[in-house]
Write a structure and sequence with these properties.
The chain has one helix and two strands. It is an alpha+beta fold and about 60 residues long.
C-alpha cells in the first residue's frame, strides 16, 4: 500500500512509549488511501445490501 501511495510512514504518537520489543513503525492513510478506502466501503455496502435483499443474511 505504501508503494501505491495509499499509506505513508509517520512519527510515533507522543503517548507511544518504548514497548521493550523491536521498534514499531506507524503509518497513516494518505488522501489517495482515504479515497480508496471510501470506494471499498461503498462496494462492501452494496454487497451487504444485495445479500440482505436476497435473504442471504439476516437483518440486524
Amino acid at each position: 500500500m505504501e508503494e501505491e501511495g495509499r499509506i505513508e510512514e509517520v512519527d510515533a504518537p507522543p503517548d507511544e512509549g518504548a514497548s521493550g520489543g523491536p521498534p514499531r513503525r506507524f503509518y497513516a492513510l494518505t488522501p489517495a488511501g482515504r479515497d480508496s478506502l471510501a470506494r471499498e466501503l461503498r462496494r462492501m455496502d452494496d454487497v451487504v445490501r444485495y445479500a440482505r435483499r436476497q435473504d442471504l443474511i439476516p437483518e440486524g
